[in-house]
Design brief:
The N and C termini lie close together (4 Å). This protein has helices spanning 16-27, 51-66; strands at 2-9, 39-45, 72-79. A 3-stranded antiparallel beta sheet has the order 2-1-3, with helices on one face. The chain is 35% helix and 29% strand. The chain is an alpha+beta fold and 80 residues long.
């Protein structure tokens, strides 16, 4: 099974990289872009017997290594 883990900064955390990208997009003429938040993306291939088990293992990996729970949150998508 494949688990996709999307890690982003929590809304209350200032995102200077996202701000810089948004300003660059405005300079390039994309004035309708209101905000940009940057993040990380991971694809995990997991040997699991169920989607629930794959999600649990991906969440454990995200909690322990892939994200910093103080400033980041994550979302997981599992596909077979």
């Amino acid at each position: 099974m494949q688990a996709r883990v999307f890690v982003t900064l929590k809304p209350s955390v200032f995102d200077p990289q996202g701000t810089t990208v948004a300003e660059a997009l405005h300079t390039l003429g994309y004035a309708t872009v209101r905000d940009v938040r940057q993040g990380k993306y991971f694809e995990l291939e997991i040997d699991a017997t169920s989607a629930d088990e794959a999600r649990r293992l991906a969440a454990e990996a995200a909690d322990r290594l892939l994200s910093n729970p103080v400033i980041e949150s994550y979302r997981i998508e599992v596909t077979s």
